[in-house]
């Protein structure tokens, strides 16, 4: 009973965090975190949420999620490719995908969600695999009882055991990873932010959001292509090192 109550509280507070801001973390979630830390200091969970993965860690996560039959692993890879939250990626429907674009549904009051994502090649490969395996399910990542996938804690612990990444990280860190590395790859900062659904961070005036109607679709698509190519380059380099060893 106690576990069920905490599970429901966690779901509600995660929803509230999504409606408020990416940097907000509910005190309830912090208290329910498995990570403990000293009083008065930023919790390990908070640091894990705000950090991003290095190139080597990206490769480690990708290698450890090479399990096409695992919904969790497929969701993690998709999150790493598109930079959206786990709940949004897990609820991806085939009907929302047209060509290489994912038209992302936005719930009432929900913030920081892009209207569409130009899916890079690696993401399209995941969707093609799931489409072939899912039968009649409308969900790209189906779960139990006809709904979409929704199971995180245990699979994440198992993933941590396989990656052997020493510094704690949570799934939200993948969102930080995408934006941070896009900027490092010379994607203009405002395009990197817009790609994952953030509002413009470089404004000429206070009314720019009101008077700018251009949606930067082509620029966002180019950002995801750049990011996709970077991941493929990292994986190719890791394979060369592995074969040379």
Describe the 3D structure:
By secondary structure, this protein is mainly α. It folds into 2 domains: 1-32, no CATH class; 43-244, hpI Integrase, Chain A (Orthogonal Bundle). Helices cover 55% and strands 3% of the residues. The chain contains 12 helices and 3 strands, in the order ααααααβββαααααα. The protein has helices at 2-20, 27-32, 44-50, 55-64, 71-82, 86-90, 121-133, 153-163, 173-184, 189-195, 208-211, 217-244, and strands spanning 97-98, 101-103, 116-118. The chain has a 3-stranded antiparallel beta sheet with strand order 1-2-3. Helix 4 (55-64) crosses helix 12 (217-244) and helix 5 packs parallel to helix 9. The longest helix has 28 residues, at 217-244.
CATH class of the largest domain: Mainly Alpha
Largest sheet, spatial ordering of strands: 1-2-3
| Second-tier CATH architecture of the largest domain | Orthogonal Bundle
Q: Return the domain count.
A: 2
Compute the CA-based radius of gyration: 18 Å
The shape is globular
| Main beta-sheet strand count, sense and barrel state | 3 strands, antiparallel
List the secondary-structure elements in sequence, H or E: HHHHHHEEEHHHHHH
Round the mean pLDDT to the nearest integer and report it: 83
Please count the helical segments.
Answer: 12
Strand percentage lies at under 5%
- Class derived from helix and strand content: mainly alpha
Give the CATH H-level superfamily of the largest domain: Intergrase catalytic core
Topology-level CATH name of the largest domain: hpI Integrase, Chain A
Could you name the ranges where pLDDT drops below 50 across 5 or more consecutive residues?
15-25, 28-40
Count of extended strands: 3
Task: Report helical residue fraction.
Answer: 40-55%
First-last Cα distance? 51 Å
């Amino acid at each position: 009973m106690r576990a069920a109550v905490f599970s429901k509280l966690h779901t509600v507070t995660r929803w509230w965090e999504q409606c408020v801001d990416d940097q907000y973390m509910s005190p309830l979630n912090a208290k329910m975190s498995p990570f403990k830390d000293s009083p008065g200091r930023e919790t390990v969970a908070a640091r894990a949420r705000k950090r991003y993965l290095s190139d080597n860690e990206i490769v480690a996560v990708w290698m450890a999620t090479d399990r096409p039959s695992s919904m969790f692993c497929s969701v993690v890879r998709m999150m790493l490719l598109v930079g959206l939250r786990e709940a949004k990626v897990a609820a991806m429907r085939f009907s929302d995908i047209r060509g290489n674009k994912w038209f992302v549904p936005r719930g009432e009051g929900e913030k920081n969600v892009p209207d569409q994502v130009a899916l890079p090649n690696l993401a399209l490969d995941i969707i093609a695999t799931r489409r072939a395996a899912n039968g009649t399910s409308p969900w790209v990542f189906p779960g139990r009882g006809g709904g979409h996938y929704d199971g995180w804690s245990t699979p994440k612990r198992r993933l941590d055991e396989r990656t052997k990444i020493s510094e704690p990280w949570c799934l939200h860190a993948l969102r930080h990873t995408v934006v941070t590395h896009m900027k490092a790859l010379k994607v203009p900062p405002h395009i990197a932010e817009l790609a994952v659904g953030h509002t413009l961070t470089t404004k000429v005036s206070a009314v720019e959001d009101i008077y700018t109607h251009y949606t930067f679709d082509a620029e966002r698509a180019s950002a995801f292509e750049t990011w996709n190519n970077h991941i493929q380059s990292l994986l190719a380099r890791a394979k060369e090192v592995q074969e040379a060893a």
